[in-house]
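Archive record:
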Amino acid sequence: MSSKGQIRDAVQGAWLEFGTFTLDPASIAAASQGTTTVTIDGATSGDLIFISPEGLDNKLAPAGAKVTAADTVTVYLNNVIDSTTAVDGASKTWSYILVHLS
């Protein structure tokens, strides 16, 4: 499930898109970084994306996101709190702002 909205600047050509997506990350090894991809229609390489979960897991830290292909965003999560145990984060709704630069 996702929702979207937009703010456009006709003069500069750049525009913002905002919405939500659901993410259920795979297990992340102790003291490691994991990645998960999500589909955001209209995202293109070179766009900027900012993400925020509805609530934080007590052992996972969001480390950012990047548009890695057309309609594909890679989300980076760190298991930096627990140096001895893998962590399997819960499914959550995330908010995003996507900055289309052209």
